[in-house]
Amino acid sequence: MANKNNKNAVFSVENLNLWYGDDQALYDINMDITENEVTAIIGPSGCGKSTYLKTLNRMVELVPIVRTSGQIKYRGSNIFDKSYSVEELRTKVGMVFQQPNPFPKSIYENIVYGPKIHGIKDKETLDHIVEKSLKGAALWEEVKDRLHENAYGLSGGQQQRICIARCLAIEPDVILMDEPTSALDPISTLKVEELVQELKKEYSIVIVTHNMQQAARISDKTAFFLNGELVEYSDTNTLFSTPADKRTEDYITGRFG
Amino acid sequence: MKYIDSQKVKKRMGGRITRNTIAKGLFFFATLIGLFFLAALAYRILTQGIGNLDWEFLTGFTSYDPERAGILAGIVGSMWLMLVTGPVTVVLGVATAIYLEEYAKQGRLTRFIQINLQNLAGVPSIVFGLLGLTIFVYVLNIGEVVLAGGLTMALLVLPVIVVSSQEAIRSVPNSLRQASYAMGATKWQTIRRIVLPAAIPGILTGSILSLSRAIGETAPLLLVGASTAIFTLPSGIFDPYTAMPIQIYSWTQQPNPDFQAVASSGIIVILVFLLLMNSIAVIIRNKFSKRY
After folding, report:
1. Which of these, A143, A65, A87, lies nearest to A111 by C-alpha position?
2. From A54, which residue of chain B is nearest by alpha-carbon distance?
3. Residues in Cβ contact with B34 at an 8 Å cutoff, skipping those fewer than 6 apart
4. Where is the ABC transporter domain (chain A) (predicted)?
C-alpha cells in the first residue's frame, strides 16, 4: 500500500503466509507499516492479529510447529534470512504483552535487564537509562522513591507501564503492543493510551486491540483482520467512517465479533 | 413440573449423611494404621537407643565391646560421601534438566529419555550398587574408597534430581521467558538470569530431599565395598570409609544382643540427620515460595 505522507516504511510485509502445523493462520498478507505512526490491528478473536504481531519480531517462532512463507522486510532486510539474528531484530523491535509480565525483581533490575543483556555495565549509564525509561513511560514520579522494591508490589497498570519502560530501555525502533490494556482498569488504560500518543513521536508503534474505540482514538492507520486475512488497511478515519469492504463495515458497526 | 422431588431428597438425606460419616471413619482408620506403626517404631528405637546415646557414642569408633562402640566413622564417612554425591548430582542433574526443559526439541528422543529417567528413579538401589561395583571399582579401578561410594550414590539419586529440577524449571511462568526473549536475550541469558533464579528454590529443595534419601541407603554401599569395621577416618576421597547405615547394619549382625541397643542409637543419629536435612528443605521452600 502506498505511503501518502512520504514517511518511511519500517516494515514491508510481502505475501506472508503462516501455518501452525497444518492449520494456516495467516493468508498472503501484504502490508507496509509506517514509521512514527501508531498502526492498530483489529479483528475478532482468532483472526490472527496476535499471530501477525508476533511474526514481526519472530516471537511466534517460540511455538515449535510454526512455518512461514513470504517476506517481512524490516528497514530493508528480510527478517527471515538465515543470516538475520532474532536477537538483533528484537533489540530493535520491542514488545509489550497482554498480561503485565515484570520479572520477579526490583523495579530497577526490571528496567536494566535489557541494557545489561546487551552488555552495558556502567552503573551511571544504567541509572540514566532507568530514569529516562521510567520518565518515558510516565512512571518516574510514581516510583522514583522505591526503585529497589519488587515490581510485583505495583498495581497492574503500573506493572504494565514498567513493562513499557523496560521495553524503552533497550532503545527500540518499533514497539509492538499485544492488547496492552486488556488486563487493565479504565484509568490505567487511559494512561497507557496517552502514553502511546507520546511515544509515537520517537517510536513506531503497532498495537493489537480488541477495542475498536481504542483503535479509533489512538491510531493513525488501522488494519482489519478476519480469518487470517488482511481485509482492509487504511487511515483510521477512513476505515471507521467509510470502510471499503462490507465485512469491515459489519465488524465496526458491531454486527459480529 | 419439577424434576427433583424434594420429599424423596429428604428421605434419602439420612442415609447419605451416614455413608459420609462411614467413609470419613474408614479413611481416618487407614491413616491411623500408618501412624501407629510409626509411633511404635519411634518408641522402640528411642527407648532402646537413648540410654546408649552420649558424647562417647558420637565421637568413638566401633568396637567389639557394645559399651564402647561409637558411630564417629559412620558420621564422617556419610559426610564425605555427601561431599562427593552432592556436587556431582546437582551439577549433572541441573544441567540435564536445563537441557531437557529448555533446549531439547520435544520429539521422540526427548520423550524416550524422559520415560527412562522416570523408570531409573524407580530402579532398586542394589542395581545401582552392582553398576557402581562394575564401573567404578573394577573397570575404572578406583578401589573401595569414598569416591567410588559417592559416585555410586550419585548414580542412584541423579534421576530423582533431574526430574525434580525439571519440575522446578517448568514451574517458571513462560511469560517471563517471553519477556526476556522479546528484549533480544539469548536462550542462555534467559536461563541464567530469569529461569534459574526463579527455579533455584525448587531445585535446592528437590536436591536436599534426594540427598537425604541417599544418606540412608545401605545396599549399594555394601556392594561397592564400604568397610564395616574401620578405625581411621577418611582424610580424602581415595580413603576407605564406612557410612552410618553400614555401621548400623553391621551392629545388627552382631551375636551379642547388647549391640541391638547400639544399633538403635545409631538409628537415632541418622534420623536426626534426616530431620535436619528435611527441615532445611522445608525452610528453603517456605522462604522462597511463589513470588509470581
Report:
1. A143
2. B182
3. none
4. 11-252
Q: Which residue of B has its CA nearest to A176?
A: B182
- On whether the CB atoms of residues A180 and A137 are closer than 8 A, the answer is no
Convert the pLDDT of each residue in B199-211 to its tens digit: 998 999 999 989 9
Instruction: State in Å, rounded, how far the first CA of chain A is from the last one.
Output: 26
Tell me the three cell numbers of residue A14: 510481502
Range from A99-108, A172-181, B99-108 carrying the lowest mean pLDDT: B99-108
Reduce the DSSP state of residue A112 to 3 states and report it.
helix
Would you kindly state where each structural domain of chain A is located, as residue ranges?
Answer: 9-252
Mean pLDDT of B32-42: 95
Per the prediction, chain A carries an average pLDDT of 91
Domain spans of chain B, in order of start: 6-52, 57-291
CA distance A245 to chain B (A): 35
CB contact under 8 A, B173 and A113: no
- The Cα A52–Cα A26 span in angstroms is 7
How far is it, in rounded angstroms, from Cα B94 to Cα B206? Answer: 11
DSSP-derived 3-state class of residue A69: strand
In the predicted structure, residue A130 carries a pLDDT above the cut 90:
yes
Q: Where are the alpha helices (DSSP H) in chain B?
A: 6-49, 55-59, 72-98, 108-120, 125-132, 146-170, 174-181, 187-190, 196-215, 219-223, 244-252, 258-287
pLDDT at site A3: 45
Report the 10 Å Cβ neighbour count for A228: 21
From CA A189, how far away is CA A181, in angstroms rounded? 5
- The CATH code for residues A9-252 is 3.40.50.300
**A14: confidence class by pLDDT, cuts 50, 70, 90:** very high
Q: Kindly state the cell numbers that stand for A199.
A: 511515544
- Could you tell me if the ipTM is greater than 0.85? yes
Nearest Cβ partner of A62 from B176, B178, B185? Answer: B178
Question: Span B57-291: which CATH code?
Answer: 1.10.3720.10
Q: Tell which residue, B272, B223, B277, has the closest CA to residue B57.
A: B272
Three state DSSP letters for A186-220: HHHHHHHHHHHHHHCCCCEEEEECCCHHHHHHHCC
Q: B28 — contact with chain A (CB < 8 Å)?
A: no
C-alpha closest to that of A114 among B173, B98, B193: B193
Distance (Å, rounded) from C-alpha A9 to C-alpha A174?
11
Residue B161 has pLDDT above 60, yes or no: yes
What is the residue-averaged pLDDT of chain B?
90
Task: Show residues of chain A in contact with B182, CB under 8 Å.
Answer: 57, 59, 90, 94-95, 97, 167
Q: Is B2 on the interface with A (CB under 8 A)?
A: no
Using DSSP's 3-state secondary structure scheme, residue A36 falls into coil
> Strands A174-178 and A93-96, how do they pair?
parallel
